[in-house]
């Protein structure tokens, strides 16, 4: 299905194995790069405030954005003034810039815009993450959350939070044979693992002594696209035929959530970060349409009728907040 990962990433098929020579090259370059940063041959930028990176070892969606939203709330409740830095995938911005509620997805990217609108804290984007983070520090932030920042080693980090979704790990081979950006062994070096879904016994062993907390995404209220009109419970659409549109890492998860709520779903999957155009929705005719919050920020200008958004939030197992705050405190004390 369009928008999903290549089929050969699901198993160690002949197609995946045929790419192993390229995978060996990718693995060698990635390992060399990590080693150079670890040994100090490549310099890391250390900011005057602590940095928390949120990321994963695989391409595709695993729930990072809802986790960042949850994390900002926890930090603010603990007395911090957090700021979020992101690459701004798909944005046309050059250099670094702050993201405002009135920014456009084309300027800053869809996820940073969603975070700026929902988190109520400063957000900055740029290919130079340390420079973007410095911009947030100058704005008064005393802790930086780096969204999808696990592989951006140039910026020193005090806490590493890795989101694990075994469905995105596929055949557990590195790119391009599989979906991994780093090997599974990388999980054992994180400070906290947030598991979205199930964690099989083999994977749990590879995580070593790193604390593991489970996450689930919840959402039961539909809001109208663009905010015109009132919200309504998802339950109100039970039994209705709807067209669901998703340009996220795992569209199937979104469709399944709607189906579990009793909706008759006609799925329309697109690649992650897809740049929607009004014509994409013509297939739905006059029937109701439902979007993810990430996609909604790109579709608001289209004037679509009978179109709804399903925001989700992360529920994290108890103890995650305490682990993060402890690492923040002791990490800076040891510096």
Task: Name some characteristics of this structure.
335 residues; Rossmann fold; D-Maltodextrin-Binding Protein, domain 2; 2 domains; nine-stranded mixed sheet; six-stranded mixed sheet; 11 helices; 15 strands; globular
How many β-strand runs? 15
Q: Could you name the ranges where pLDDT drops below 50 across 5 or more consecutive residues?
A: none
Q: What global shape is seen?
A: globular
Q: Architecture of the largest domain, according to CATH?
A: 3-Layer(aba) Sandwich
What portion of residues is helical? 25-40%
Number of helices in the DSSP assignment: 11
CATH top level assignment of the largest domain: Alpha Beta
The average pLDDT is 93
Q: In the residues, how many domains can be counted?
A: 2
Order of helices and strands: HHEHEEHHEHEEHEHEEEEHEEHEEH
Give the termini distance in whole angstroms: 48 Å
The largest beta-sheet arranges its strands as 3-4-2-5-1-6-7-8-15
CATH topology of the largest domain: Rossmann fold
Strand portion = 15-25%
Main sheet properties:
9 strands, mixed
Rg on CA atoms, Å: 20 Å
The secondary structure category is alpha/beta
Protein name: Tetraacyldisaccharide 4'-kinase
Family: Belongs to the LpxK family.
Binding site for ATP: 58-65
Function: Transfers the gamma-phosphate of ATP to the 4'-position of a tetraacyldisaccharide 1-phosphate intermediate (termed DS-1-P) to form tetraacyldisaccharide 1,4'-bis-phosphate (lipid IVA).
């Amino acid at each position: 299905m369009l928008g999903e990962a290549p089929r050969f990433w699901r198993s160690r098929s002949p197609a995946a194995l045929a790419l192993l020579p390229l995978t060996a090259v990718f693995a060698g370059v990635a390992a060399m790069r990590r080693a150079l940063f670890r040994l100090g041959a490549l310099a890391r930028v250390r900011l005057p405030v602590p940095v928390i990176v949120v990321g994963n070892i695989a391409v595709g969606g695993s729930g990072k954005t809802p986790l960042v939203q949850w994390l900002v709330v926890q930090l603010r409740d603990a007395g911090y003034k957090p700021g979020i830095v992101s690459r701004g995938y798909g944005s046309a911005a050059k250099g670094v810039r702050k993201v405002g509620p009135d920014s456009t997805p084309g300027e800053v990217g869809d996820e940073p815009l969603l975070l700026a609108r929902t988190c109520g804290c400063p957000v900055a984007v740029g290919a130079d993450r340390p420079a973007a983070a410095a911009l947030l520090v100058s704005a008064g932030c005393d802790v930086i959350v780096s969204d999808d920042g696990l592989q951006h080693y140039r910026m020193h980090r005090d806490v590493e939070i890795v989101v694990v979704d075994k469905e995105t790990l596929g055949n557990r081979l590195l790119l391009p044979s599989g979906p991994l950006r780093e090997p599974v062994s990388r999980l054992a070096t994180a400070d906290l693992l947030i598991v979205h879904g199930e964690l099989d016994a083999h994977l749990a062993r590879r995580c070593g002594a790193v604390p593991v907390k489970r996450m689930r995404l919840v959402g039961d209220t539909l809001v109208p696209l663009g905010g015109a009109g009132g919200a309504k419970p998802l339950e109100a659409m039970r039994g209705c035929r709807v067209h669901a549109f998703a340009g996220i890492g795992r569209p199937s998860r979104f469709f399944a959530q709607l189906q579990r709520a009793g909706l008759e779903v006609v799925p329309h999957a697109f690649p992650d970060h897809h740049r929607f155009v009004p014509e994409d929705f013509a297939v739905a005719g006059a029937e109701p349409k439902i979007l993810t919050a990430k996609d909604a920020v790109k579709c608001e200008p289209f004037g679509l009728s009978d179109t709804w958004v399903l925001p989700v939030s992360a529920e994290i197992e108890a103890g995650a907040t305490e682990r993060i705050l402890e690492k923040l405190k002791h990490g800076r004390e040891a510096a």
